[in-house]
Automatic annotation (TrEMBL):
The keyword Transferase applies. Belongs to the glycosyltransferase 2 family. Pfam families: Glyco_tranf_2_3 (PF13641). This is Glycosyl transferase family 2. The chain crosses the membrane at residues 12-36, 300-325, 332-354. It comes from the Bacteria. CDD domains: CESA_like. It comes from Deinococcus daejeonensis. Keywords: Glycosyltransferase, Membrane, Transferase, Transmembrane, Transmembrane helix.
Length: 419
């Protein structure tokens, strides 16, 4: 017995059906690649099991980070495995950041504190690059904390001489509110689905500042650029342009403090999006260029088409479907249900791969109705700002401190010399 299928009766209905079909194909491909990456990651671990780990130099650029710098340093110094050097660069802080870091340096010879006038994150990281001791350099944001085993998980990739950089898995660890929970689900999908799929395609576009590993000699030579305000993406693309692999390591967890109010979230996303525009403009000569390799044929076109175009078009689809529902319900209902179902399925797959609770699925409708339009508005405003040649600056977000999963808030004493 065949089941009748009602085809759209309007042009808009056909457009919606074609769009949702393409989105479903992308979702299926992304989930398939993400689960294949889980097997690839296991094989990579097996190949380096028992091999000595290269030493790691951790770079922490800090400007007015007295709220969280101690937790960051504790999480780094507690890492087991590779030989460790910790470089804290105080970028002209006006609070107690330098004093707190200096207390750690007095009690642990692995910590060095460098001080400079305020010049921005790129200049602070470049100063750290001048003092690297070990062959692997790992950037850690001063508002983040590493899970145990993160440095070892990142370092083992550099046994392969083809690898130039490795991205860690960044997760949200802030106050539990509707806004931070929506960001948590967004991060989970971005890391467990998008990053895994990009790794399988050789198209990872960003190694994040919260947990990113690089070959030290590449950082010394290429340097963090002042040309853009997303220095981590800029360096990642520069390394890929040199012909090196950029990977994603799901076992390298870094918990970061998210924006806790709409104003801070807006400023963060404007910087991210504007910096992406800058990077795309800087490396536009590589797009669809045979000399660009996978970077030119996959990574940059993906960012352009999905990140900057289709990524901001979701709410337009929703509005068109809702408008069509009032006139031709049959034309809009199926595409809308398929699209929502795909969102839930992809989010569920991401949470399962990340070994997280499925409870965040309950906020999927809220995220779709609020966060997606919010991000789309950011894309539009960034386009306007970029075309009008107005600059977006690195904005310091207010800090409230990390709230790590399963951990009660504590105020551990700072280390004393001789501890």
């Amino acid at each position: 017995m065949s089941i009748p299928v009602a085809l759209p009766s309007t042009t808009l209905g056909w457009v919606l059906l074609i769009i949702v079909t393409l989105l479903l194909l992308k979702a299926v491909l992304t989930v398939t690649l993400a689960f294949a990456h889980a097997r690839t990651a296991a094989r990579r671990r097996a190949r380096t099991e028992g091999s000595p780990l290269p030493g790691v130099s951790v770079m922490i650029a800090a400007y007015n980070e007295e709220v969280g710098i101690a937790d960051t340093l504790r999480s780094v110094l507690a890492q087991q495995g590779p030989a460790l050097q910790v470089l804290v660069v105080d970028d002209g802080s006006t609070d107690a950041t330098a004093a707190i870091a200096a207390q750690f340096a007095r009690s642990d010879p692995r910590v060095t504190v460098l001080r400079k006038a305020n010049g921005g994150k790129a200049s602070a990281l470049n100063l750290a690059a001048d003092h690297l001791t070990y062959p692997v350099a790992v950037s850690v944001d001063a508002d983040s904390a590493l899970a145990p085993g993160t440095l070892a998980a990142l370092a083992r990739h550099f046994h392969d001489p083809r690898v130039g950089a490795v991205a860690g898995d960044v997760r949200v660890a802030g106050p539990v509110t509707s806004l931070t929970q929506m960001q948590n689900l967004e991060y989970s999908v971005g890391q467990q689905m998008e990053k895994r799929a990009q790794d399988m395609l050789g198209a990872v576009s960003v190694v994040p500042g919260a947990a990113g590993a690089f070959r030290s000699d590449l950082i010394r030579r290429l340097r963090y650029s002042h040309d853009t305000i997303t220095e981590d993406m800029d360096l990642t693309v520069a390394i890929a342009a040199e012909g090196y692999e950029v990977r994603f390591e799901p076992g390298a967890l870094s918990y970061t403090e998210p924006p806790v109010d709409l104003r801070s979230l807006w400023r963060q996303r404007m910087r991210w999006m504007y910096g992406t525009f800058q990077v795309m403009g800087k490396y536009r000569h590589l797009i669809m260029n045979p000399r660009g390799g996978r970077l030119g044929w996959l990574t940059l076109p993906y960012v352009l088409v999905y990140g900057l175009t289709l990524g901001g078009a979701g709410p337009i689809f929703d509005l068109a479907a809702l408008a069509l529902l009032t006139q031709h319900m049959n034309d809009a209902l199926l595409p809308l249900l398929l699209n929502v179902g795909a969102d839930v399925a992809v989010a569920a797959a991401a949470l399962l791969l990340g070994r997280q609770s499925l409870r965040p699925l309950l906020i999927t409708p809220t995220q779709r109705l609020f966060l997606r339009p919010f991000v789309s508005l950011v894309v539009v405003m960034t386009c306007v700002t970029f075309l009008r040649r107005r600059n977006v600056q690195w904005n310091k977000l207010p800090r409230v401190g990390l709230r790590l999963p399963g951990a009660a808030p504590t105020r551990e004493p700072l280390p004393q010399a001789g501890d």
